[in-house]
């Protein structure tokens, strides 16, 4: 018996058709699309299917739907495609694409280690941690939400306050005693909390790239634990897989 792959949802196919229409139909940023009945007839689909495709395009930032006004084409935001093989901070990643990140809503505070963070960092529960949360923006648009923790003994809160970026960048740029050699990461699509989605300016139905990682020194000592959320309208991550010799 030959197994067949499940067909893609109809709205996904229509979304691809709309992508092609936006590229070849002469639409420019700010242009208004035809009304839904006309657009559905033009593409040859039901209005319900069209709405689902439009909802997806809106979440990706391609269009903007204004209640009672219409649907408008957005300027496509910068788009970062990157592998995950190299351990680098978001500052370095964006700088390599000539994009200057801006950190907003940055908070720094000492907290007692909860069970999960304590386990990841190899410390006892209740030990003091430096906790840094921040929203990263590019071209005035929020693109990532970072939650990073490290033992206070490694990076005190006042030392974290002395830098303006991520804790990972601080460690990567620090002295040899604070080296960050490699990371073990878990990657998944998730829906963010209200706080995270508000920071990123998306609805709680929008899937986000989630990377949870523990960063280790060259001596295999845990240095940093982070839970980072990335806007899929801006980032596309991939992993290079090689055949074993």
SSE inventory with pairings:
Blueprint: H1 10-24, H2 36-43, H3 47-59, E1 63-66, E2 70-73, E3 80-83, H4 90-95, E4 102-112, H5 115-121, E5 128-138, E6 141-151, H6 157-161, H7 167-172, E7 182-191, H8 194-200, E8 207-216, E9 222-230, E10 235-238
Parallel strand pairs: 3-10
Antiparallel strand pairs: 1-2, 4-5, 5-6, 6-9, 7-8, 8-9
Helix pairs in contact: 1-3
Give a verbal description of the structure.
The two termini are 33 Å apart. The relative contact order is 0.13. By secondary structure, the protein is α+β, with helices and mostly antiparallel strands. The model is unreliable at 1-6 (pLDDT under 50). The protein is elongated. The chain has eight helices and ten strands. Strand 1 (63-66) and strand 2 form a beta hairpin. The protein has helices at residues 10-24, 36-43, 47-59, 90-95, 115-121, 157-161, 167-172, 194-200, and strands at residues 63-66, 70-73, 80-83, 102-112, 128-138, 141-151, 182-191, 207-216, 222-230, 235-238. The protein has two domains: 10-73, Arc Repressor Mutant, subunit A, CATH 1.10.10.10; 80-238, Chorismate lyase-like (Chorismate lyase, 3-Layer(aba) Sandwich).
Biggest beta sheet summary? 6 strands, antiparallel
Uncertain segments of ≥5 residues (pLDDT<50)? Answer: 1-6
Strand neighbour order, sheet with most strands: 4-5-6-9-8-7
Q: Any idea what the radius of gyration is?
A: 22 Å
CATH superfamily of the largest domain: Chorismate lyase-like
The count of strands amounts to 10
Structural class: alpha+beta
CATH architecture group name of the largest domain: 3-Layer(aba) Sandwich
Strand content: 25-35%
Principal-axis shape equals: elongated
Helix content percent band: 25-40%
């Amino acid at each position: 018996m030959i197994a067949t792959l499940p067909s893609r949802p109809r709205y996904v196919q229509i979304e691809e058709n709309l992508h092609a229409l936006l590229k070849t139909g002469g639409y420019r940023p700010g242009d208004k699309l035809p009304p839904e009945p006309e657009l559905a007839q033009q593409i040859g689909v039901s209005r319900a299917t069209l709405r689902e495709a439009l909802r997806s395009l809106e979440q990706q930032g391609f269009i903007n739907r204004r209640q009672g006004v219409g649907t408008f084409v957005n300027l496509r935001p910068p788009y970062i495609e990157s592998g995950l093989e190299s351990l680098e901070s978001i500052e370095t990643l964006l700088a390599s694409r000539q994009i200057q990140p801006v950190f907003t809503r940055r908070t720094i505070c000492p907290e007692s280690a909860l069970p999960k963070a304590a386990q990841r960092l190899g410390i006892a529960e209740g030990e003091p941690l430096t906790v840094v949360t921040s929203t990263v923006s590019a071209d005035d648009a929020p693109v990532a939400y970072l939650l990073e923790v490290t033992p206070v003994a490694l990076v005190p809160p006042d030392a974290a306050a002395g830098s303006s970026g991520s804790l990972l960048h601080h460690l990567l740029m620090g002295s040899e005693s604070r080296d960050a050699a490699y990371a073990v990461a878990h990657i998944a699509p998730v829906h963010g909390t209200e706080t995270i989605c508000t920071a990123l300016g998306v609805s709680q139905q929008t899937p986000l790239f989630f990377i949870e990682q523990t960063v280790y020194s060259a001596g295999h000592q845990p240095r940093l634990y982070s839970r980072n959320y990335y806007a899929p309208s801006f980032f596309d991550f991939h992993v290079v897989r090689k055949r074993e010799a």
